[in-house]
């Protein structure tokens, strides 16, 4: 017969066992949904970059192609022969990079090799404009060795994008342009055809966004540190979901090889351009017809603005939508079509997105007061139009208080600067002999006398002048007295 103590021990052991069983069941029941959640997450996440990019490579590689191009006029082999005109100014600013190309395709004996990727199963391919520029024929090669002829559907030199169409009725593996913008610090994987070595994969992160590399008013590049080299042009950079976040277009390098500074056209811009190229064979952009410059702290003070933001109109094109709507030199555009304009590039991109023929509100700051002007947006012309001008003349005189000497302009349009004191604020702000002052304090000046009179009228510590340098115009705010 069990004793009272042994009975108590058995009871205690039973309770402990029950408790342990309950604990086990509780743990299992709570782990089931967690396990299911982890499994679901694993199904949506393509790779774990701390382990391997191989699953991502296997998924996207069939859609990445090498682009071989037979080109016209291939005899020019000078260092910058293949550099698009719009990029030369950028490289001329940096002598050490003068002989480098902006991530060129490989070129041999009238051939160019770049990269691209398929965006639809019926065979549309995205690449760079500079890869297929002057193409006589185009051939597409896939990673499995299959080759097809292709046609150039359309190109857009302003964004350096091109759309090709494979000559085949087959169905091709395609990748998607990302819906979400890439963030600084995001992983990216670049795939392409560097130096003709097709199917090359490199990885890195998004180093910066919104880079302006001197290509044009629509520059908005992603900077990435995944290695891209000559021949990677037109190839894709993928996020971890296998979506294309950018089209590799340029490198910045003293040697011509990758140093971890590459530039990719963001997916959002690619979508807009590709849609236009596919439907029309060209890109139609909205056009305002103004020459603009950003608002600096000094300009803001000279214009009477509270903050240095917006875009100042420094010139207007003849017969332009802006001129017809009544916009004027010196107006500061703060909003366009309901979007805030922080700088000149903001305005260019905002107007470009507007369908020609659309009436939009443009909020400006003029003569110390806010106004709203309705503008019917036009179609951007294919060539640089002629700017409006003025004509008159007079004798010259000294403006030593500003560090300038001036004389009548040769054509009577404004007042020509004949000398600049190298120690003056005018020199610091880039004014030089040959520049022409068109306005002072919002008043057109056709003679040195008119310029002197206008200087007497404006109040404040700074003098706001509209200056023409070559074919460009800009506003400059100079201190009234020399320091």
Layout of SSEs?
Layout: H1 4-44, H2 54-60, E1 64-71, H3 85-92, E2 106-108, E3 111-118, E4 124-127, H4 129-132, E5 135-142, E6 147-156, E7 161-166, E8 187-192, E9 200-211, E10 221-224, E11 236-238, E12 244-251, E13 262-266, H5 267-280, E14 286-287, E15 290-294, H6 297-303, E16 311-316, H7 321-325, E17 332-336, E18 339-340, H8 344-352, E19 359-366, E20 369-376, E21 378-379, E22 397-399, E23 404-408, E24 415-420, H9 425-428, E25 436-440, E26 443-444, H10 448-457, E27 462-469, E28 472-479
Antiparallel strand pairs: 1-3, 1-5, 2-3, 3-4, 4-7, 5-6, 6-7, 8-9, 8-11, 9-10, 10-13, 11-12, 12-13, 14-21, 15-16, 16-17, 17-18, 17-19, 19-20, 22-23, 23-24, 24-25, 25-26, 25-27, 27-28
Structure description:
The N and C termini lie far apart (113 Å). Mean pLDDT is 78; it is low at 1-13, 15-43, 75-101 and 383-397. This protein folds into 3 domains: 50-283, Thrombin, subunit H (Beta Barrel); 286-379, Pdz3 Domain (Roll); 397-479, Pdz3 Domain. The protein has helices spanning 4-44, 54-60, 85-92, 129-132, 267-280, 297-303, 321-325, 344-352, 425-428, 448-457, and strands at 64-71, 106-108, 111-118, 124-127, 135-142, 147-156, 161-166, 187-192, 200-211, 221-224, 236-238, 244-251, 262-266, 286-287, 290-294, 311-316, 332-336, 339-340, 359-366, 369-376, 378-379, 397-399, 404-408, 415-420, 436-440, 443-444, 462-469, 472-479. With 483 residues, it is an alpha+beta fold. Strands 22, 23, 24, 25, 26, 27 and 28 form a 7-stranded antiparallel β-sheet that branches. A 6-stranded antiparallel beta barrel has the order 1-3-4-7-6-5. A 6-stranded antiparallel barrel has the order 8-9-10-13-12-11.
């Amino acid at each position: 017969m069990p004793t009272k103590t042994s009975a108590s021990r058995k009871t205690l052991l039973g309770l402990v066992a029950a408790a342990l069983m309950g604990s086990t069941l509780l743990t299992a029941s709570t782990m089931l949904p967690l396990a299911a959640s982890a499994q679901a997450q694993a199904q949506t996440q393509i790779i774990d970059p701390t382990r391997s990019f191989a699953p991502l490579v296997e998924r996207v590689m069939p859609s990445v192609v090498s682009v071989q191009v037979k080109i016209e006029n291939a005899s020019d082999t000078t260092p910058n022969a293949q550099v698009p005109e719009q990029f030369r100014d950028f490289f001329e600013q940096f002598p050490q990079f003068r002989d480098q190309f902006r991530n060129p395709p490989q070129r041999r004996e009238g051939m160019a090799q770049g990269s691209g990727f398929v965006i639809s199963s019926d065979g549309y391919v995205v690449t760079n404009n500079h890869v297929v520029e002057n193409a006589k024929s185009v051939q597409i090669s896939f990673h499995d060795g299959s080759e097809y002829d292709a046609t150039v559907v359309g190109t857009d030199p302003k964004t350096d994008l091109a759309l090709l169409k494979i000559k085949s009725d087959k169905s091709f593996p395609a990748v998607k342009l990302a819906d979400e913008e890439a963030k600084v610090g995001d992983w990216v994987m670049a795939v392409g055809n560097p130096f003709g070595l097709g199917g090359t994969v490199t990885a890195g992160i998004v180093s910066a966004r919104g880079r302006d590399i001197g290509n044009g008013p629509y520059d908005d590049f992603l900077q990435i540190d995944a290695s891209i080299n000559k021949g990677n042009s037109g190839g894709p950079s993928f996020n971890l979901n296998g979506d294309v976040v950018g089209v590799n277009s340029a490198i910045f390098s003293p040697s011509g090889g990758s140093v971890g500074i590459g530039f990719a056209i963001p997916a959002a811009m690619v979508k807009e351009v590709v849609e236009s190229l596919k439907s029309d064979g060209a890109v139609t952009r909205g056009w305002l017809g103004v020459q603009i410059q950003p608002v600096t702290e000094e300009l803001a003070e000279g214009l009477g603005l509270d903050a240095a933001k917006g875009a100042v109109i420094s010139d207007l094109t003849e017969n332009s939508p802006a001129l017809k709507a009544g916009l004027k030199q010196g107006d500061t555009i703060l909003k366009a079509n309901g979007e805030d304009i922080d700088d000149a590039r903001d305005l260019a991109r905002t107007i470009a997105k507007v369908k020609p023929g659309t009436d939009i509100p443009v909020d400006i700051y003029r003569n110390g007061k806010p106004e709203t002007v309705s503008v019917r947006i036009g179609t951007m012309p294919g060539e640089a139009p002629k700017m409006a001008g003025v004509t008159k003349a007079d004798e010259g005189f000294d403006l030593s208080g500003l560090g300038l000497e001036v004389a009548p302009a040769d054509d009577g349009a404004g007042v020509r600067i004949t000398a600049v004191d190298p120690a003056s604020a005018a020199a610091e702000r880039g004014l030089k002999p040959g520049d022409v002052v068109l306005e002072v304090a919002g008043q057109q000046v056709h003679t040195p006398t008119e310029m002197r009179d206008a200087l007497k009228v404006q109040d404040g510590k700074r003098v706001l002048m509209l200056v023409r340098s070559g074919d460009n115009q800009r506003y400059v705010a100079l201190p009234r007295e020399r320091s």
